[in-house]
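Box 4.2: Ligand-aware structure prediction
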Amino acid sequence: MAFTKKTVRDIDVAGKKVIMRVDFNVPLKDGVITDDTRVRAAIPTIQYLKEQGAGIILMSHLGRPSGEGPEPELTLKPAAEKLAELTGYDVKFVDDTYGEKAAEACAAVKPGDILVLENVRFLKAEKKNDPEVAKKLASYADIFVLDAFGTAHRAQGSVVGPAEYIPAVAGFLLEKEVDTLTGIFADPDRPFVAVVGGSKVSSKIGVLDHLIDSADTLIIGGGMAYTFFLAQGYSVGTSLQEPDWVERAGEMLKKAEAKGCKILLPVDNVVTDHFGEDAVGEVVDSTQIPDDRMGMDIGPKTTELYCEAVKQAATVFWNGPMGVFEIDQFAKGTEAVARAIADSDCTSIIGGGDSVAAINKFGLADKMSWISTGGGASMELVEGKALPGVEALLDA
Ligand code: ADP
Ligand code: MG
């Protein structure tokens, strides 16, 4: 599906001042950025705007401040410095967002300049989409650009607000994310194989429901598989399970059958007597899980089956690990499936915080076609929901 909103390409930014909401919500340890993926992801749009001769004002949230004022450990200064380091551009930073100091710094922005404002969430009103916040941010610039895909599902002041006052368009990251994640429902190269795992059916029901509409094969793994086993009448011992969701799981299986989407469930599992690093795994068939055992990973037969299915695919979408990948001995299923995807020529799209962490842990990130930078936002797209931030932009 083509992106239906205007992007920075569709508006004349030369000599104009642009305020851009980016997602610089980076992980920090002792004031040092431990993963700069999000800063890197914003660079193409920043570069484009600079080359076009726009003056650039950047804003973002970082962490979860109380909203009662500045919190030194959640300043955006390290992100501004990282941007300077990665691009070689001169990047200015002002330790203010809504006050006189920020207004003056924004007023001084010239074509080609880059200014980073302080954390937008130091003021509580931002999260509530207060019109005063929106008006203030819009007053700094001529054009609003949204490139913060990771927060595009939140109707907050810095995400949707300025669009009410000044022309609002998408940046390249937002465009690419929305294009990629909605494209798997529009016209995926087939066979389209979806791999869904993780802990709970309840948190993924919308994802499963929508994927069944589009995928040729849906592979299910992780903790959620056990609720599906219950729907099939198997016992699952002490495995993660959601009794209240058994009926919905059963409905999903029926829906898939009606839609011609083939569902693969584990045929064997690595089970243990308790959850922990020191737990000893043994392999049992899915119909033979003892009462005092819990499933921690897909078993070797399942792994082979899943890897084979993935190898046949032209498009793979993956969300949710196949097992408790945080513990090495239960990461094997997740790793094998990840490698099968990485080694294939298919278009591979990965979404979800823990799935991305797993891919990074295995060092396979650069072998995937697209790794979504948004956790919640990517899930909402895959559920088929519209993102408020995108809705607020000008139609193309
Ligand atoms: P994502 O963030 O990629 O959307 P989820 O948050 O849904 O993924 O699920 C990730 C979590 O699921 C991981 O912490 C992992 O340990 C857990 N998980 C996977 N398989 C199991 C299992 N068999 N039992 C318990 N937890 C599991
Ligand atoms: Mg998660």
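In the box above, the bound molecule is magnesium ion. The radius of gyration is 23 Å.
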